Amino acid sequence: MSKKDIDIENVKRIKEAVDFQLFELIKRRKEFDETLFQVTAFMLENISDSMAAIITLGKNHFKSSLILARNILEDSINLQYIYKSDSERKALNHMVFSQKELLKRANEYGYEIPTDLQKRILKNQIKVNLYNPSGLRKNYWDGLSIREIIESLGYKRMYSDWYVRLSSYIHSQYKNKIDIDSNGPYVTFLRELLFRSLMINILQSLKSINGKLELIEGAFIFNDYPEKGSTFFFSIDKQNEQL
Fold it and tell me: What's the angle, vertex CA 153, arms to CA 151 and CA 156, rounded to 5?
């Protein structure tokens, strides 16, 4: 099996874990705070959809996969941040802010919001008064920038080493084509980021959710990570941590 095939297999098996956790979350929906459920399900669905696209694109369209990787990273980080503490309040903040932004854009650009979505927003209007962000930045869902959220989780270099670099591929820049075509050390770094480091960060998100909701059990082994010849073991539940 080629390295590209192994990389795609890694994505497939992590996606299976995401999908299984989402399945268990939906099955046990009534056990959890409804807003926390909705926000968690929304982010897990986003991650799963992006991973499905990477599985399709990853072998032959690596640059396009990097755009999806940035989206996955942001959802993964937000899940870890929400489940770190005060989960219900943060989930409510995320939902209220998202709906306020939707209404704001609808008014600015004059487009009509679908009737079913309007009903859901009206139903949640009572929650607007409960919006209580952690920071003071008005343009961010919890009042904190993505950099501040990342650093609050203890990831000191993730913003500059991961988020900024992946963000550059969302914008059309000729330099990005040169980077990929060169197939040099920077591309090797990006491949490790996409197919190894990001997959482990997704697992960290599942583990964060499990710490509160106890949905699934499991552990994953990554060969040749973080360096060739080494093996990395990651458990997404407490039961397997000592194996």
Answer: 40
